[in-house]
Amino acid sequence: MKKIKMRVLAKSDKGLIRDQNEDYYYISDENQKIGLYMLADGMGGYEGGEIASRLAIDAARKYIETHFEEIQHDKESLQKLIKDAMDYANTVVYDIAKDSEELKSMGTTLEVCLIYNNRAYIGHIGDSRIYRIRKDFIRKLTTDHSYVETLVKDGTITKEEAKHHPKKNMLMKALGCSEILEPDISVKNFQKDDILVMTSDGLTNMVEESKIYEVITNNFDSSDQMLIDLANQAGGIDNITVVIIKN
User: Fold this and answer.
1) Considering Cα of 165, then 133, then 26, then 117, what sign does the dihedral take?
2) Is residue 204 part of a domain?
3) 20 to 30 A from 3, CA-CA: which of 69, 97, 140, 157?
4) Looking at the DSSP assignment, which residues form a beta bridge with residue 119?
């Protein structure tokens, strides 16, 4: 295994409107054997969203760290590890939600990124996002599991119309809301100088992709705080979380 030297920035902010922060993230210590990064945007009344996002990340992290040494470290095995970890996290959240009247509507998005041998193994469910910046281009690596994304795919509305659609926050998939989870699992190359950006929709609903690219490439060391400031300046209507990983 090649040891990847990475620079990582991460920040979370409750924004200007919400009473509490239902986002949660995890970044592995640089001394750990594996580079593991996760982000979750919780939802649900009472304290449900905050609980769901923490439960999901803690469960997925423990599963991956427990089983990583047991598996073959080929592409297929690592993808299965991510899928199994997300399935386990789903079961944890779902079982607690169904047994609690106060937490029955809780759920969460979940982004999992395991970096190993210059590849990023990605698990995704919901409408949080992962981008990759390579040279002069930013590319979205995940597809939102949202109602408006299905309308865009169908050609019913344009991407521009989707930004202001009244149902833009309606999710078609989330973790913890049903017994069966169908996340997207993918593998992307992660080359020297590439940057991965994991973010909740509190940022992407407020700040354009082109501006995210501009801030990170021009001001990397302070880009996490700058992006949160921009989202708040634009209204800060949701919790804002960003994890930035540079190879």
Assistant:
1) positive
2) yes
3) 140
4) 116, 189
| Average pLDDT estimate for 219-246 | 97
Domain that holds residue 90: 7-143+173-246
Cα distance between residue 85 and residue 16, in whole Å: 33
pTM of the model: 0.93
What percent of the chain is modeled with pLDDT above 90?
A: 79
Using CA atoms, how far residue 145 sits from 46, 68, 132, in Å, is: 24, 28, 19
Residue 165 lies in a domain: no
In sequence order, which residues have a C-beta less than 8 Å from that of residue 58 and are 6 or more positions away? none
Q: What is the CATH number of the domain that holds 228?
A: 3.60.40.10
pLDDT of 4 reads 54
State the pairing for strand pair 240-246/195-199. Answer: antiparallel
pLDDT digits (tens, 9 = 90+) for 105-137: 899 999 999 999 999 999 999 999 999 999 999
Q: How far is 167 from 175, CA to CA, in rounded Å?
A: 19
d(CA 33, CA 31): 7
Handedness of CA 181, 26, 66, 64 (dihedral sign): positive
pLDDT band at 159; cut points 50, 70, 90: confident
Residue 39's pLDDT is: 98
194 part of a folded domain: yes
The answer to the question of residue 151 being in a domain is: no
Alpha helices in the chain (DSSP H): 48-67, 75-98, 147-154, 159-162, 201-204, 209-218, 223-233
Distance CA 157, CA 162 (A): 7
Cα 17 versus chain centre, distance: 21
